[in-house]
Amino acid sequence: MDLSRRNFVFLTACSTFSGLFALGEDAPWGNVSPFANVPLFGMENRGVSADELVEKMWKVSWERFWAPESHVFVDYLTSYAPGEYRKHLPTPEEVRRIFPNECGYGTGMEDGMIFAGAWLTAIVDRAKCESDLDVRAEMKRLAHEVFLGIHLAATVHSDPGFLARAVLPADGKSVYPNSSRDQYTHAVHGLWHYYRSPLCEGNEAEKEAIRKVLSLIADRMIRNVVPENDYDSLLLDGSRDTRGISRMWNVLAHEAARLPMIYAAAWDTCRESADPMRVKKAETYLSEYRKYAEKSVEQSLALDEKTLLRWVPTYALLQMQSSLELLWHLETDENVKAKLILGLERGFELAAARMQNADAYSKDLDMTFLFQDWRIQGGGIPWGTPIRRIWYSPRETGEAAMTQLMCPTKEFPAESREMLNRAILRIQPDRVATSGIFYLISAYWNLRAKEREQKKEKAALS
User: Fold this and answer.
1) How many whole angstroms from its chain centre is CA 192?
2) Predicted confidence band at 36 (pLDDT cuts at 50, 70, 90)?
3) In 3-state terms, the chain is what percent helix, strand and coil (to 5)?
4) With contact defined as beta carbons under 8 Å apart, do 373 and 418 qualify?
5) Which domains does the chain show, CATH number per domain?
6) Mean per-residue pLDDT for 121-145?
7) Measured between alpha carbons, how far is 231 from 246 in angstroms, rounded to an integer?
8) Helix runs in 271-413, H state only
9) Mean pLDDT throughout 23-28?
10) Number of C-alpha atoms within 13 angstroms, CB side, residue 224?
């Protein structure tokens, strides 16, 4: 999903602000359910725990939304019948004709790389929380599967480093020609966390493959994101993006840290390569990062109320937070690092109101709604409609929760915990057609992992 200037009407209601609620000392830790002390909500799922529902959503995601032919998750389902889940996806001929648009909006293929990043963080965090060796081995396999999708999206076409939104499962090679900074942001964020996780420990081949993808992306940014192109990363055919969603610099405040984040991830991974040429490239990536880093942080902190209300939906808030979080991990200058914390804390505060808004408008939505083929009038996930709200509702709650959980100086508020719980309990896993459940899954495991780490830190201090 990208911020199209003409499609923002539906999302402008997502910007009410409110106070925060601190998390008490009796919070559950470790392998205890993060919802152990939260009352159950929901009509269809009374008596069923959020933990059970998340596990069922996990299975449904991989059984129905995952297209193994091209290693990608799709945006929505149009059938609950086995073998029919994803029949609405475009044909190779439709993609070749760039139909219905250059981004594949509405077709089910618009957010594949965004999903890949969210899933990588979910898998990495779940692996941290699981003690069963078989489950951990399965997490390692799944992370590799998601990585294969990112690798394919970056290499299957004529311009290595262009990150296609998704590769068509029907032929394993067709892609729409326009990506976006949002796709790059989530994919790079997820790849870096995967690279630095225990799932990659001792697997030099996987690490080098990740370095290659990040290097291809960074090299293409260096070539294309220049003043002559108005800092546009360009379409697959090298033409300019008329929507403005591929511009990587001279952008709005919440988009400023995206480009330096890409260079930082490429530097941090490639400097460890056994290939001297890749190590040499890492020096270039560090130089590019330094060129933009401090300016991008200052611009992020200057996010004004007008821009926030008009141009920053919750998915963009999460992307800003993802960029700042990765930079916070890697930045060595203490002054810049302190500013990054300020940015992350502001993102934490802004996300609280977004979650309240999503919670309020989700109460009367039919989360079992089955989407129609996008070729039918009113089909797909059309902007500004109740259908779009059904599709986005659980996603927005998860995005807001993930935004808060990325802030290293804050604990997850009790109110946010309750709203996340409610969003999970609204879902009937066997009758859900929206990819928004991916974000509930990711938020759930992000929370489990954060609480596990906090428990270890408390134990070390006691």
Assistant:
1) 13
2) low
3) 55, 0, 40
4) no
5) 9-461 (1.50.10)
6) 98
7) 9
8) 276-301, 305-311, 314-330, 334-362, 386-405
9) 29
10) 24
